[in-house]
Request: fold
Amino acid sequence: MTVQRSRLLLLGATFLAVISFAGNAPSQAFGADRNLTFADIANRVRNSVVTVAAAVVDKHAVVMKGKRGAREGETSDRGGPREDFSPARPKQRPGEPPRQFTSIGSGFVIDASGLVVTNNHVIEGGNSIYVILADGTELKVDKVLGRDSKSDITLLKVTPKTPAQLRAVSFGDSSRTRVGDWVIAVGNPFGLDGTVTAGILSGRGRDINAGPYDDFLQTDAAINRGNSGGPLFNEAGEVIGINTAIFSPSGGSIGLGFAIPSNTARRIVEQLERYGETRWGWIGVRLQTPSEDWAAGQNLPGAEGALVARVDKGGPAEAAGLAEGDLILSFAHQHVKHARQLPRFVAQAPIGEEVDAIIVRGGERKTVRIKVGELESATHELSAAPPKTKRQKLGKISFAPLTDETRGAFADAEGAVVAGISDAAAGGGLRPGDVVVEAAHRKVRSVEELEARLDELRRMGRTEALLTVEKPGGTIAFASLPLGDG
Reply:
């Protein structure tokens, strides 16, 4: 396959693979110190950065909006337009045969025997994949050794024509890179191979809703379509990130680039090489972030941690004694700030080993030991519930008993049905049709038991009550009920 090196116009951005449809990109001025140079680093590492090209048959003609959820073109809840993480695809006239296009991204050599790392989305759907070296040599990929869609990392195997043809770079320690440190990106934006840009590390631990384990490094080094899968270097010439995504309203760099940290990438690459797949940790819980009202009701200093909304039957969490309503503050000696953070900690935990988790239950802290299991399928995936909606002042809530007419899908449930909420109030997370099954960790089997429990909590001086709620469809959630309005 011969890859045409054309300049490419991109109608979208975030995942940075490009296709062979022309364009240009804005440049970004950098550096006030005229004596500052990255020439030595660039000279040392440029030949280790490659172009990755995949021939893809477009069976669907065009990427449909909404197909990829948070990855589609949208306005991010983090602010600013975010572009499609997949390669743009041309429209196709009805009746035309499927078109073939070339997805072009970057990669880098980690072993001179022929191991190349890139992003999974660069080669996704490719029926033939090539690695193109800095001198223009094209090597057909012998095998995709492994790919992981959750982290968007793929490991490729090629056979060099001579033993010295490939030059490897090594991973550095991304945890030691500080915000404000210089970083250098090398890749092939818009097909311009070997492009070097520089900037600083702008942020750490960024969650851009790209996947369940987001922990991106943020940089203002100019990266564009075609940089996907390419390395982000530190001043020592070590790879401290894999360039993967940008936020942009135009398709070009505006200084908001995101890279997978090398400490995450190294672990995944090692597993792909060894097993051909990534093995993620799993404990079997569903999570949500506690509200400020709930935290205040529990006499906690702030709404931090991950609230357990459901415990999977037969999972490691159940075996360790975790229960719905437990608040996880720490896992494997890592502080948990919010619910979306914990899945990453669990995923990276050593499978088969016991780790400590600090929880709050009934206002008391305790430590439990959980034996980490292996995530086998998406049906068991550790996940965080959708972000909570903004709480409004509660109006009067009416409850009704479960009857044959109102029971519906709640075949085995006992509790009180939310019959109505006046003044269009949010009810602290309650919705008509929800079934309240517990109040402040005590089961309630009827409207009378619920009202008695709420009165008891008022006499105890409580201003909030944590309600365990079963939603239509069987999902479990929590709602914080202001007792003064009950």
Summary: Residues 203 and 218 are 5 Å apart (CA to CA). The chain has eight helices and 31 strands. Confidence is low (pLDDT under 50) at residues 3-14, 19-32, 60-89, 377-395. The two ends are 70 Å apart (CA to CA).
